[in-house]
Structure formats: structure tokens, C-alpha cells
Amino acid sequence: MRVAIAGAGAVGRSIAGELLENGHEILLIDKAPTAISVERVPRAEWLLADACEITSLDEAALQRCNVVIAATGDDKVNLVVSLLAKTEYGVPRVVARVNNPKNEWLFNEAWGVDVAVSTPRLMSALVEEAVSVGDLVRLLRFSHGDANLVELTLPPESALAGTRVGDVAWPQDTSLVTIIRGSRVLAPSPEDSLEAGDELLFVAAQDREEQLETLLSVRNNV
């Protein structure tokens, strides 16, 4: 998979290193000469250019990319890169970094963003996830379909503890994608039973989150 990353700072380089380890082809783009540190990510391609300029993106052959990641420290730049990647080059997947949580509402389909990653929001969500049992925690927002990646740790008193996944009447527009049980990561099947303490990850429409939380947290009266 070919991935272009706009922004070769610490965040962009870190992402590039991880993706290279997973066998992907990486292009790092930055307009600051001081950011071009080929020795730090030697297996990546590097381009000294302004990712907000069409001529630069033509040189980067953005139309060949499967994914574009807008990872600069400037939200305005990340929005422009996302919009150009999607509308001018038809990139299938655009991921954008949100630096200021107040700007998060802008990072949506209208600006070409498929997935918006807000570091402050993600950090607070991970703190909540670590200490919350029975509360739905939003981890990640997907622009398409107004859906979110959410997590809930099943409390011991939940009426669903011991229930098979296939027997649960899940809310519409929600999908259980992973069960984390201790050190195990399970791809849920209809025959799997839910257990107290399971970390459940869902992709869910935002307007179904409250219904999902109520379903999972309802107390067993027995």
C-alpha cells in the first residue's frame, strides 16, 4: 500500500516508521528544509515541497496513493491537504490530525476527511477507558456515516454477562468488532459469550451510542 504523509515532524516520522515496519510504501512531504531528515526514516521517500500546492502533489503522484495522512501541526494545512487529496486526486482514504479540539467539527467529509484523529481527545478517551467500567467511551470518529469507534467494559452486574453474542438484540447501526478479554483479542462470532470485564469495541452511529450504553450497562436484577 502506498501512503503519503504530509508533515515530516515527530508525528509524521513516527507514523512513517510504523507503516514501513508493516511493509507499506511511504512518501514523506514537508516544505521545511529542516524537517527533511532522511537519515531518521531512510527507507521512506522524501519530498521537499508544500503539500498545499497542486504542483507539489502532482510531483508526489498523489493519485497513486491508497492513503494520505495529513499530519502537520497546522489544522488549516491538514484541511487543505485532505480536501485536495480527496477531490483532486481521488485518494480512497484520507486521515487527518486534529491539533486543536475546537477545530474538530471541521474535519469531516465536506473537507475530504475519512478519519479525524484528535490527540487530546484520544488521550482523554484512553484515560476514561482505563478507569471506566460500564460507561461508553468514544475513541475515534469516522466522518463517513457519522460513526464512531467506541469502547465499553462490561460490568459484572450487566444482564448481558453470559449471553451469546448472537442472542443479543443489538441496536440498529452498531457492530461489535472486537472483544478484548485479558491478553486475548477475539473476533466475535455469534457463538461467543460475553463475560464480565470484557472490553467491547463497537463501530456505532453516534445517535445509537446512548441506546448501546443502556443495553450493555443494564443491571441484572437476579
Task: Walk me through the structure.
InterPro entries: K_uptake_TrkA, NAD(P)-bd_dom_sf, RCK_C, RCK_C_sf, RCK_N, Trk_Ktr_HKT_K-transport. Residues 1-117 form the RCK N-terminal domain. The mean pLDDT is 88. This protein has 222 residues and is an alpha/beta fold. It has helices at 10-21, 54-59, 75-87, 119-131, 209-217; strands spanning 2-6, 25-30, 45-48, 67-70, 93-98, 115-118, 137-142, 147-153, 174-181, 184-186, 199-205. The chain has an 11-stranded mixed beta sheet with strand order 3-2-1-4-5-6-7-8-11-9-10, sandwiched between helices.
The dominant shape is elongated
Radius of gyration (Å): 20 Å
Helix content: 10-25%
- Backbone structural class: alpha/beta
Question: What's the number of extended β-strand segments?
Answer: 11
Q: Helix-strand pattern, N to C?
A: EHEEHEHEEHEEEEEH
The spatial strand order of the largest sheet comes to: 3-2-1-4-5-6-7-8-11-9-10
**Distance, first to last CA:** 52 Å
Number of helices, counting only DSSP H or I runs of 4 residues or more = 5
Strand content: 25-35%
Largest sheet: 11 strands, mixed
Note poorly predicted spans. Answer: none
Mean pLDDT: 88
Descriptive labels:
222 residues; alpha/beta; eleven-stranded mixed beta sheet; elongated
